[in-house]
Amino acid sequence: MRAIIFHRLAWAALALTFIVVMLGAYVRLSDAGLGCPDWPGCYGRLAVPDQPHQIAEANAAWPHRPVEPAKAWKEMIHRYGAGTLGLLVLALAVLAWRNRRDPAQPVALPLVLLGLIGFQSLLGMWTVTWQLKPIVVMGHLLGGLTTLGLLAWLVLRQGRRDPLALNPSPRPEAEGAELRRYALLGLALLIVQIALGGWTSANYAALACPDFPTCQTYWWPPMDFREAFAPWRGLGVSYEGGVLANDARVTVHMMHRLGALVVALYLGWLSGRLIAAARAHALRRFGVAIAVLLAIQLGLGIANVLLHLPLPVAVAHTGGAVLLLLSLVTLNHLLRRETSL
User: Fold this and answer.
1) Owning domain of residue 263
2) CA-CA to 170 of 20 to 30 Å: which in 5, 142, 152, 297?
């Protein structure tokens, strides 16, 4: 019974993490990241001030950040979701510890997730108190996606019936190990590209190149790598709207484009390899799924530039990255399971 409850809670936490990540992207891209200037409340309250006297008090206490209810509510809904996720992960950790004598019960992973959620809370606080510092914003994104990936791995590990069961036909051990290395490298490349995307967004560089495939009419525009990737610029600076000069923003944007090209070429090759070489139907399906998601993601990235970053497209671009990440995590799990049979 405990195993069933644990598995259902893991699924619920995974679904909620996806929602929280997408809400975080929506908050960030709609410029609501500082909708509440304090943490964990909003203008000193657990809910957004909505009465005239509450708004007046909040404006007096934070004169540099007048209340904007629409932005504040976006931020607080994201915080409510993150807080609920923290409770779910705490429940998973407690259940795992209580059932630790069961050999089939994973214990280390739920405890790692609990520690990660605690660190994510700190990053969420620093995002606000350090006024959207890029290294913190990017770290918060990567922490959320790490939580999502680990929860997906936990769900797959706990699944009592693998819905993507492989064909019984044997695969040569060398081929299985080779595909596993290729899939792991694909996951690593995607993570680096997501980090570049997070850095681009955190530095407000998404529209530094308003044309495509050129950038400000150049194939290789003037760049400033040293300034573009400086990780720390001190405290007491508001990064809302970005602080980088044009050449540095262009550098960040162009590196994200080049990263997209590398990832597209590699994952395109990997999907072709899966479709052509895999004897298992599940792996062939993964090859097709990765190819389709990759094409959609590239289209969304180009649309962001040509349409000047419309909010629905920008949020969908984050969603595409999340789905690609989940597909590669699942593929790695499937290959690891296969080679261990």
Assistant:
1) 167-341
2) 152
